[in-house]
Amino acid sequence: MCSFPTLVDRSPSILTFLTSVPGLKQITEAFVRRTFFAQSVQFIGGDTAHECVPLLESLRAENKGTLFAYSIEVDEAEATGSGFKGSVSVYKQIRQEMIGSIDVAADFEDQRASGSSFAAGRRTWVAVKLSALLPDAQSLVNLSVYLTKAHPAWSAIAFPGYPRASDLDCLTSDQIKGVSPLIEQDIHDIKDLHSDLLVSSPTINAMMLSLMRQFNKLPDHSSSESTPVRPLIYATFQVYLRRNLEYLEQSLKDAKADNYALGVKLVRGTYHLHETIAHETATFGHNNTSLSISPDPHPPVWPTKPETDAC
């Protein structure tokens, strides 16, 4: 059925209707579980983190690690704060599910920690998508615009550049410097997220740097402690971004200088077409309709796959 584009495009509205009708809801869910879900068991382990534990067990028996990636499709208007709001906000539900996933992953590893060597490592991780954890993801964009304008030296590395340790100082500052769409509500929401979670925009880069500096700290060089420290926080490095190689080099330098473990999740990247179109739209003077905030003359992604592969 996935070979029919029209059906795929209309599937959200079809599923929304079918699951809103008593009786049809149960039939629809059973059908989806036995077709789409059954064909991708390693990608869809269950409705909840607890339901995924048997799959974690079987994968661990095959010496495979697991990445929890809580996936939930929501109405776009609701996710951006302009649609219908239920008794509990969508972003708060997602936050709680993320925290629950971390608890399940930690319990799973703790049960297997006794008697195992540290070299084997803990191999259950939780992916966190920051844009889903705010009342309005536009707050991240606004802070990214602010950071882009606050750093005239972004051009040293292709957009979105690299984060500075001082990037999040504005969250505790009494004044927003410079001209940007960043407002006090954005600062409140991002600050709340940062403190609540203790967890390819400049904002996300800055938050990952802040968290790695705090939670991936290595023992002091003078310490006699010999147990290696594995990163607790990992940042995603997208190879299809022009800045990736220089960003990795800069990140390694910063990690060595400040004595913390650099956690790297290396991926190719997904939104090549979207990034390219957004940049072209902005380049041709349609900034009011473009999602791009890059000041660079070139798009942030490599134009061809061979260039990405070479990186």
Automatic annotation (TrEMBL):
Its EC number is 1.5.5.2. InterPro entries: FAD-linked_oxidoreductase-like, Proline_DH_dom, Proline_oxidase. It is an enzyme of class 1 (oxidoreductase). GO terms for biological process: L-proline catabolic process to L-glutamate. It catalyses: L-proline + a quinone = (S)-1-pyrroline-5-carboxylate + a quinol + H(+). It holds the Pfam family Pro_dh. Its cofactor is FAD. Keywords: FAD, Flavoprotein, Oxidoreductase, Proline metabolism. One of its GO terms (cellular component) is mitochondrion. Transmembrane segments: none annotated. The keyword Acyltransferase does not apply. GO terms for molecular function: FAD binding; proline dehydrogenase activity. Residues 288-311 are annotated as: Disordered. The keyword Oxidoreductase applies. Residues 205-280 form the Proline dehydrogenase domain. Converts proline to delta-1-pyrroline-5-carboxylate. Belongs to the proline oxidase family. This is Proline dehydrogenase.
